[in-house]
Amino acid sequence: MTEQTYYSDSANWGGYQYVPLSEIVNNFMLINVGNDTLVNNVPRHKVLFYAKEAVKQYNYDAAREPRVFEYIVQDDLKMILPHDYVNYIRISLESNGRLYTMHENLQAISATAYDQDANGDLQFDIDGNVLTTQSQLDTSRLDQTIYYGPGIYNGCAGWCVDDVWYFGYQRGGYYGLETDRASSNPSFRVNKKSGVIDFDSNISGQRVVVEYISDGLYAGDAETYVHKFAEKWIYAYIRWAILDDKINVQEYIVRRAKDKQSSLLRNLKISLSNINAGRLLMVMRGKDKTIK
Question: What is the mean pLDDT of residues 131-150?
């Protein structure tokens, strides 16, 4: 690729830093698999499997490159988690071009109610599965009228937990909060089992911005990229994983392969962390200026 080709096509920008997963697998099969190496008689699909495991660890532990998207909260106050979601970095409420960081309320819960008859007995469908419906807990949270009528909830939004009202955000301040929830911004809760994020009451129709860590495998093998600095570590990870899974391999060989990939991972984290003395000094001084 010439420099003219690189700069004239936005699809190429930044691409020189990365190498596709398919190329890594091909290179490993070419260089690290053979009769004169520790790794022999290994099929390509097995190498590809361990390479994907390495990519997932690379994205979570070393790269930390977030994916970002906007979402307008609907009336159900839920957002489906992205299919490649691993963990969130920050979830913010967007207002007039500014982002207000939301906090996670771990004590807030969302429930599903069992359908019962007049005698309190559970109801089942023809397949024997219990029937469910929306819980009163969620119904009350989705009911916006209680926040505008008379009473202590007027102008407030939050979660009711153990008979205590935890304010997410409200007009005029917040009261009775613990320090980990002492914020006037809305709150949320990640419900991984249901695959959704439950948002605070009273933000229906508002826009949120989600920054999260991906597993890195949302694209195909040829379109999954890792940084070139990670290439050597991925080779070491694949080699260790294969040796650890094989029989009749001496323990010291497996341990040596594990120690090598661990050492390369530490070096990779340092290389990609972008830590330098000038940046540390700026953070410590609290001044946004160049240190000479």
Answer: 63
